[in-house]
């Protein structure tokens, strides 16, 4: 095993803005909006209607397929509507809207802990599914599906992803400092499902306090170890961690389980522990509010359905004298640009980054033709050829992009865009190409039915 992966870049971290600000819970006062698609897979199906009273933790939408996830209310109150609302990315989506009564009355006693020895493997899988736990590292893949690979005995590593390599974001750092025993217990619960697996907690070496906390919690645990990883982006990418820890590469068409690995974010493992031992649904997560335009950067426990704008107002708004040029759900490398902050926080959202300068505007002013320097290929963690991929995409040769240059293997980490001296919008070009290819495949699939 090694402590890093092939390629990658070293963007400025900017973590000093919030890294030492303790996690604190934010209780919203405004209406709560719950999009029905907060996960990879089929949207959930609403099981409440206008006028229904709901409580914290009560299921309001249920999974509508194998790859789907239940949604629980994070507030108590009354269902106001089931209607389309604007969400991340600017589109409209079917949502459940709840008038928050401000009482946050729970549907059950989520402080009552069960004896771990009395919880079976079937209990763990069932409770994780009932809790609606999804990957909290950004992708939102339903966790109960991930924990049911074809051959559990073939899993060699369960990797707890505490790398948090995205610039600015520090919520996982604070979670590991304050909830290390719970995260380790969540990892041990998952390890029960995979008898031949080793649990590895991977943390970038720029988080010494988190490393120390997790090492203390893992001390004496026979199947759990903590690995300090080299600080490099995208160290926290699923494939990057597997390459570094298991020493294997695999195509996007395959899953980590196909190469003997399960990767879960440390926040996800905390949610697993809460679900398995406390029967608590996933209705909140860690989120970093940060950036040079933020008055008071910090780390929060936020409830799903909270408006980004309400959280920002609570945190003091925009810094005096600063101009907000760009807002991102997430960090600057893979975050989603927000056209409005009046959209709800979803399960998989882990950051709100407020920039006083827009790097894309600056890059557009400086952009030149490709210099053929090859730096993009050097930093690509997937070993691709971004220069040639961009040429094919711009020319509309999507067959070459997909079949000859393996463009769909791109994980859209943005390393190539970051390193490009010509300031070409490579990642944006690849996102568009992938979107067009997948749209064509869907159209062809529909035509063949």
Describe the structure.
The protein has helices at residues 121-130, 143-146, 171-178, 180-191, 208-218, 238-245, 266-278, 308-314, 359-366, 375-379, 386-395, 398-404, 415-419, 426-447; strands at 23-25, 32-35, 45-46, 53-54, 59-62, 71-72, 77-86, 92-100, 157-161, 198-204, 224-229, 261-265, 284-290, 298-303, 326-329, 336-337, 351-355. The chain has 14 helices and 17 strands. With 449 residues, the protein is an alpha/beta fold. Among the domains are: 15-20 and 110-278, 3-Layer(aba) Sandwich (Rossmann fold); 363-448, no CATH class. The mean pLDDT is 95. α5 links the parallel β10 and β11 (224-229). The chain has a 6-stranded mixed β-sheet with strand order 1-14-13-17-15-16. Strands 2-8-7-4 form a 4-stranded antiparallel β-sheet, with no helix packed on it. α3 packs parallel to α5 and α4 packs across α5. The N and C termini lie far apart (47 Å).
């Amino acid at each position: 095993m090694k402590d890093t992966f092939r390629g990658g870049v070293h963007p400025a971290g900017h973590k000093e803005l919030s890294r030492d600000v303790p996690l604190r819970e934010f209780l919203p006062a405004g209406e709560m909006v719950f999009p029905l698609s907060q996960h990879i897979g089929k949207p959930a199906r609403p099981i409440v209607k206008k006028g229904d009273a709901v409580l914290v933790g009560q299921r309001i939408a249920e999974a509508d397929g194998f790859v789907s996830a239940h949604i629980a209310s994070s507030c108590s109150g009354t269902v106001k509507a089931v209607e389309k609302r604007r969400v991340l990315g600017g589109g409209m989506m079917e949502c459940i809207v709840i008038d928050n009564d401000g009482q946050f009355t729970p549907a059950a006693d989520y402080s009552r802990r069960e004896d771990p020895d009395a919880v079976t493997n079937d209990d763990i899988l069932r409770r994780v599914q009932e809790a609606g736990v999804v990957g909290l590292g950004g992708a939102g893949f339903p966790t109960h599906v991930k924990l049911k690979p074809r051959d559990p005995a073939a899993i060699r590593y369960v990797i707890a992803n505490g790398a948090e390599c995205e610039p600015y974001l520090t919520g996982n750092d604070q979670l590991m400092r304050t909830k290390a025993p719970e995260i380790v217990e969540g990892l041990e619960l998952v390890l029960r499902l995979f008898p031949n697996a080793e649990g590895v907690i991977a943390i970038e070496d720029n988080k010494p306090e988190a490393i120390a906390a997790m090492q203390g919690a893992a001390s004496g645990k026979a199947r759990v170890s903590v690995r300090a990883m080299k600080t490099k982006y995208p160290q926290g990418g699923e494939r990057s961690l597997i390459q570094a820890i298991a020493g294997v590469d695999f195509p996007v068409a395959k899953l980590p389980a196909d190469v003997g690995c399960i990767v879960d974010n440390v926040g996800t493992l905390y949610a697993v522990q809460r679900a398995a031992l406390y029967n608590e649904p996933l209705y909140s997560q860690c989120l970093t509010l940060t950036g040079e335009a933020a008055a008071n950067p910090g780390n929060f426990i936020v409830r799903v359905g909270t408006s980004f704008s309400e959280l920002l107002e609570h945190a003091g708004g925009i810094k005096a004298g600063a101009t907000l040029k760009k807002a991102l759900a997430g960090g600057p490398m893979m975050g989603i640009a927000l056209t409005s902050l009046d959209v709800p926080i979803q399960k998989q959202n882990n950051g709100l980054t407020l920039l006083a300068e827009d790097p894309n505007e600056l890059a557009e002013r400086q952009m030149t033709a490709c210099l053929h320097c090859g730096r993009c290929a050097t930093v690509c963690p997937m070993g691709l050829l971004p220069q040639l991929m961009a040429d094919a995409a711009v020319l509309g040769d999507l067959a070459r992009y997909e079949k000859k240059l393996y463009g769909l293997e791109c994980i859209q980490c943005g390393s190539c865009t970051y390193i490009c001296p010509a300031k070409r919008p490579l990642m944006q070009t690849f996102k568009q190409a992938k979107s067009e290819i997948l749209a064509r495949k869907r159209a062809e699939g529909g035509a063949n039915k």
